[in-house]
């Protein structure tokens, strides 16, 4: 009986001591957890912890951008993850890459520079992102988002200036030549047809001489806007000379291009703009063996025939 009592006594003491140890270990872990949480909260970058494809923790800067949410639980009720906000665009990371998780892709390709584009509460943001593995067995990762919106917007503005015509706000000659070369390469490889159309505003020099260059500029702007508003999203329209404009029509045969050209010609003729104008149009379809120079030369010749034939005409070359 005495032995049993002593044994129970020692077991009780051991359990009590174990409880004290667990309590202090828990306090120590909690202290470190709170300590590290305070550190990441002072960061200006978004820090996000993901486990099994779900967000389990974020720092305070996360809610600087996602202000409608009070905590991560509220956010998770509406969104599977932050990738709901990723915008698929060339040069920016999407939510999936050939079936591979975007987070794992970041970890496996840390030597590359990764950017994402997001619209949050109707505002556009750009982030440089990186990820690291915290616990591979438990599938836990840390992801850091660094806001580069200001730099990215400045670069995009400079890029736009380099490819846009300052007056008409459509593509410029440099942009058009680049796109033409790209389409020639794609067509030669995949055999997809495309057509090229060149416009010339008839007697534009007389407009400048009679009304002045300010009116001439307004005519160019209104002409560009009229044509642009009647094109498909994938069509490539640019100002390639003083009063000349080029139009690339992907996956379009010459007969369809001719139908569109006649429609545009009539729209220009009937347009009630700054002053009445008409346009002459030359059209060619890509032919085997064409290069940048030959297709432009054939289009110019078609345009010459349209002008020589009385103007306000469409000629298929």
What's this entry about, in short?
The protein has 317 residues and is α+β, with helices and mostly antiparallel strands. 47% of the residues lie in helices and 22% in strands.
Structure overview:
The protein has ten helices and twelve strands. The protein has 317 residues and is α+β, with helices and mostly antiparallel strands. It is elongated. Strand 11, helix 10 and strand 12 (314-316) form a beta-alpha-beta unit. The N and C termini lie far apart (114 Å). Helix 7 packs across helix 8.
In total, the number of strands is: 12
CATH topology of the largest domain: Alpha-Beta Plaits
User: Strand order of the main beta sheet, please?
Assistant: 2-1-7-6-5
Rg from alpha-carbon coordinates:
32 Å
| Domain count | 3
Number of helices: 10
CATH architecture tag of the largest domain: 2-Layer Sandwich
- CATH homologous superfamily title of the largest domain: Reverse transcriptase/Diguanylate cyclase domain
Report the end-to-end length measured between terminal Cα atoms.
Answer: 114 Å
Element order, helices and strands? HEEHHEEHEEEHHEHHEEHEHE
Query: How does the overall form come out from the CA principal axes?
Result: elongated
Biggest beta sheet summary: 5 strands, antiparallel
Would you state the CATH class of the largest domain?
Alpha Beta
Assembly annotation: single chain
Q: Indicate the structural class.
A: alpha+beta
Indicate the mean pLDDT. 85
Kindly state the percentage of residues in helix: 40-55%
In terms of DSSP E residues, the strand content is: 15-25%
Low-confidence stretches: 1-5, 7-32
